[in-house]
Design goal:
Elements lengths: L1 H19 L6 H33 L4 E4 L2 E4 L2 H34 L7 H26 L4 H6 L2 H33 L13 H19 L2 H25 L4 H12 L5 H6 L4
Antiparallel strand pairs: 1-2
Helix pairs in contact: 1-4, 2-3, 2-4, 3-4, 3-7, 4-6, 6-7, 6-8, 6-9
């Protein structure tokens, strides 16, 4: 029953997002990401986490013992160090980086670049939903009593993290277009007084942020987990509203606005006449 509810959530939410993105020519690309990206990322994460988990257990083997299905550590400091490494590095960093590197690679190899706000978020949203559905199925199958917890955290886990990273990917696309304007202006012999936009910075910030949020999700005690879930649910709702409000925002248009704000002596007509845009 729990997986039925999760799948229903996933289908309804994806249906809404595809409806908002109707009329675009990137649907095949999204489906490709859902199939290829989802399978690759899940298999890669399972392999990496299994291997790294063995290394972690081996490293800490002299500091804990196993009894009745629980780890018992020789000190609280050792326990929290173990949980920190497992939560933030072996789980959060591995899962988030594998998911987004897979999608980022597929996006950058695509001839039709993604420019609108919704186009930029959709691939990451799909990989988050696919990954979450598969992970939830594994948890529910292998861990007794985890069903409702996985239902509750469906939107506040990988889906929310994907929406956040999708926003930073959009910022990356804007910065890329800003730099294209700079290159074109310089090629036309125009002297520019400002430096180019930091192209990769949004990707790095987005990765660090979602890794921290994911790791915190795994690290905190059960007593405060409900408050964190409530916070993440608010974040999800705010992000979803933002997607609806900004779905037609275009990276090229935002780049031109940024450029013109920096160089107020030029107008959009000037850039068109100089064949910069």
């Amino acid at each position: 029953m729990h997986m039925t509810i999760i799948l229903l959530f996933a289908i309804i939410f994806l249906g809404i997002m595809f409806y908002l993105n109707r009329g675009k020519n990137a649907v095949k690309h999204y489906l490709l990401i859902a199939i290829i990206g989802g399978i690759i990322s899940v298999l890669a994460c399972l392999f990496i986490e299994q291997f790294s988990g063995i290394l972690l257990d081996t490293f800490f083997s002299y500091h804990y013992y196993w009894e009745d299905g629980w780890y018992y550590f020789d000190s609280a400091a050792t326990k929290y160090l173990y949980v920190f490494i497992d939560s933030f590095l072996l789980t959060a960093l591995v899962e988030e980086s594998v998911k987004y590197i897979t999608v980022f690679t597929l996006n950058e190899k695509k001839q039709h670049k993604l420019y609108t706000y919704l186009e930029c978020i959709m691939p990451y949203l799909i990989i988050g939903i696919v990954f979450s559905v598969i992970e939830d199925a594994l948890y529910i199958k292998n861990i007794e009593g985890s069903g409702w917890a996985r239902v509750i955290t469906f939107f506040t886990g990988h889906v929310s993290f994907s929406m956040i990273f999708g926003y930073f990917y959009y910022k990356y696309r804007v910065n890329t277009e800003i730099n294209n304007l700079y290159y074109e202006a310089k090629r036309k012999g125009i002297k520019l007084r400002y430096k180019m936009a930091p192209k990769r910075r949004p990707i790095v910030i987005g990765m660090l942020l979602v890794t921290f949020m994911h790791g915190l999700n795994n690290f905190i005690d059960e007593e405060i987990y409900l408050y964190l879930w409530f916070l993440y649910m608010i974040i999800f709702i705010v992000l979803f509203i933002r997607i609806i409000e900004n779905k037609k925002r275009d990276a090229k248009e935002d780049a031109i606005k940024f450029f013109l704000n920096k160089y107020t002596e030029y107008t959009e007509e000037d850039l068109t006449e100089m064949e910069i845009i």
